[in-house]
Specification:
By secondary structure, the chain is α/β, with parallel strands linked by helices. The protein has ten helices and eight strands. The longest helix is centred in the first third of the chain and has 16 residues, at about 35-50. It binds adenosine-5'-triphosphate and magnesium ion. InterPro entries: AAA_dom, Bact_polysacc_biosynth/exp, P-loop_NTPase, Wzc-like_C.
Length: about 250
């Protein structure tokens, strides 16, 4: 079921990147079976995090193009649809796509907030056509993403945002190419690993888990992307630190 075609929003005014956005199937067709799968992911993340505070979450993967942005954006939409006040932040400062997904300009975003003390971040966060869902685009791609993401300013900023939103979800780069995600995994409440079936190598997933364990990240579970099922190719969810191909719930 190749439902996720890259789409470029008609309103995309971005000038600094040619990356395309992802399909918001949960917004466009909330009754679709795939939207239901994203709601199941939402519920399973909630179960995984039961009794723990989970206000800040990242969706990552071992390597590129495993579906991080698709899963993060669609799951964020389902939380907003449930009534949670959600902020979705593009912290993939190397291959940002959130602005294209939501048809927003990207001349100001996270990187500006972190580097320009004069800027009121409330002016940079944008509402979307999805009720309860606000977004913060990446802003211009900086020369030093890891340093920015590891800065006290970033951590203080997140603390401020936690007071204003029920849930903050970050789109981030893959684990194995750069250290950005490992850095963030150390200070967010939970990490969900997206594993694309037939693409992700077991070794790469194992290495990603090691990197997460190294920083004592709270790995809540896995999203199995492109899982063959009765309905075609969809999304499944697995729990915990263990890993087994095809084991989805
Ligand atoms: N289950 C799926 N079926 C078909 N296509 C999919 C599926 N999941 C993701 N895709 C497509 O695969 C491509 C990569 O997805 P996405 O951009 O979400 O991945 P990513 O991990 O965020 O990539 P990057 O590493 O570049 O940030 C997109 O074109 C997306 O539409
Ligand atoms: Mg992405």
């Amino acid at each position: 079921m190749a439902i996720f075609k890259k789409q470029k929003s008609k309103n995309d005014l971005s000038t600094d990147t040619m990356e395309n956005g992802v399909m918001l199937i949960t917004e466009v067709t909330p009754k679709d079976v795939v939207s239901e799968q994203f709601r199941t992911i939402r519920t399973n993340v909630e179960f995984s995090a039961v009794d723990k505070e989970y206000k800040t979450l990242i969706f990552t993967s071992s390597n590129v193009s495993e579906g991080k942005s698709t899963v993060a954006a669609n799951t964020a939409v389902t939380w907003a649809q449930q009534g949670k006040k959600v902020l979705f932040i593009d912290a993939d400062l190397r291959r940002p796509t959130l602005h294209a997904t939501f048809g927003l300009p990207n001349n100001q975003g996270l990187t500006n907030v972190l580097t320009n003390k004069e800027l009121d971040y409330h002016d940079v966060i944008k509402t979307t056509r999805v009720e309860n869902l606000s977004v913060l685009t990446s802003g211009p791609v900086p020369p030093n993403p890891s340093e920015l993401l590891n800065s006290d300013r970033m951590k203080n900023y997140i603390e401020l945002l936690k007071g204003e939103y029920d849930l903050i979800i970050f789109d981030v780069p893959p684990m194995l190419q750069v250290t950005d995600t490992q850095i963030m995994a150390a200070y967010v409440d939970g990490v969900i690993l997206v594993v694309r079936q037939g693409v992700a190598q077991q070794k790469a997933v194992t290495r990603s888990i090691e990197l997460l364990e190294m920083v004592h990240a709270n790995l809540l579970g896995y999203v199995m992307n492109d899982v063959a099922s009765r309905n075609g190719y969809g999304y499944g969810y697995g729990y915990g630190y263990g890993y087994g191909y095809g084991e989805t719930k």
